[in-house]
Amino acid sequence: RVLGARLDADLLAARKARRSAEVAAIRSLKTALGNAEAVPAADRPYELVEGNADVPRRELGLEDIDRVIAGEIEERIRARDDYARLGRPTDDLATELAVLERYRRRA
Length: 107
Fold this sequence. Notes:
- This protein is mainly alpha-helical.
- Helices cover 64% and strands 6% of the residues.
- The protein has four helices and two strands, in the order H-H-E-E-H-H.
- It has helices at residues 2-16, 20-37, 62-85, 91-102, and strands spanning 47-49, 52-54.
- Strand 1 (47-49) and strand 2 form a beta hairpin.
- The longest helix is centred in the C-terminal third of the chain and has 24 residues, at 62-85.
């Protein structure tokens, strides 16, 4: 929950400053975390919440969050390497990597 609030605040600041690569990285991380919270279709116990059928989300532990962040970082590293191999600019990907690294827990 603390990370979610931090991501929301950082996304707002990045949007206001028009830092598109930072916005893209934060949005992508928020989406990946949301997807990780989804429960498999067979495990969906529906419950009535304020008149709507809703599916409770999975609570992510710190290790789960670490795995999601690591996956996002790995995607950017692969993309950066592919772009560099093809002679394409990698500045935005480098920025996204730096942004994602800010959310990685330190051991």
